[in-house]
Design goal:
46% strand; 6-blade_b-propeller_TolB-like; zinc ion binding; membrane; Neuraminidase; mainly beta; NHL repeat containing protein; 1 helix; four-stranded antiparallel sheet; transmembrane
Length: 251
């Protein structure tokens, strides 16, 4: 598993919960290996390469498992030019990238641009801030969090509109992941994790709060072998991150 943090680093977490930095950048910049506000992270299971949405540099950077930069794409002029990429999803030699300009970019994993999906709005194949997305690897369908429209849109493997759900329960869905049994949706405004079955019916909600079984300001998550990993961002951790960042700049 890999995750990004606010100190411009990418971390790898093994199954024994040992955290090691793969990419560490102490100074902000636009250099090839520098990251400015990394957001989404995805791993190509066929190669082990790590794809990082470099938010402020408006591109995607690809690192091997040792942290060596392999590729950068999305910052070239043209139809495939990115604007503040947020979420990534990889399946079948294809990578989808959500961005702050309310559309989804479709690339090959080698960085070749294919197509642009969606426009701003609230109808079919229209989006209002789509941060989280994921593939159903069994059929190639795509689940996209349409956050400000309070819904999940499902696209076919050809990236055409199929259906949508969640407007009766969701309130700013931020991220989505799948298991064989359920669709997991992280809802930021309601501070909870919703579980839907594949009939698109709500099965259960894990509500936020101050108890051990509840969530406190969840931000994003991933699922590995039916285990849920949550990045819980609370005030004290933000203060600690800011303190460490200031300390690094003073050294």
């Amino acid at each position: 598993m890999a995750t990004a943090n606010t100190l411009e680093r990418i971390f790898s977490v093994d199954y024994k919960s040992k955290i090691q930095p793969i990419v560490s950048v102490c100074k902000l910049g636009k250099g090839l290996e520098n990251l400015r506000g990394p957001r989404g992270v995805a791993i190509d299971n066929s190669t082990g390469d790590i794809y990082v949405a470099d938010y402020e540099n408006s591109c995607v950077k690809v690192f091997d498992c040792n942290g060596k930069i392999m590729l950068k794409f999305g910052d070239e002029d043209g139809e495939g030019k990115m604007f503040c990429p947020v979420g990534l999803a990889i399946c079948r030699n294809r990578i989808l990238i959500s961005q702050s300009s309310d559309c989804i970019l479709n690339y090959q994993v080698n960085g070749e641009f294919i197509s642009r999906i969606g426009i701003p709005g609230e109808r079919e194949l229209e989006f209002d801030f789509p941060p989280g997305l994921t593939f159903d690897e069994s059929n190639g369908e795509v689940y996209i969090c349409d956050s400000n429209n309070d819904r999940i849109q499902i696209l076919s493997k050809e990236l055409t509109y199929k259906t949508e759900f969640g407007s009766d329960h969701l309130n700013f869905p931020l991220d989505v992941n799948l298991t064989k049994e359920f669709i997991y949706i992280l809802d930021l405004s309601d501070l909870c994790l919703h579980l839907y079955n594949y009939n698109l019916i709500l099965h259960k909600s894990i509500i936020s709060g101050g108890y051990e079984s509840e969530l406190i300001t969840p931000y994003f998550f991933c699922i590995d072998n039916s285990k849920i990993f949550l990045l819980l961002i609370i005030l004290i951790s933000l203060l600690l991150a800011l303190f460490l960042y200031s300390t690094l700049n003073l050294i």
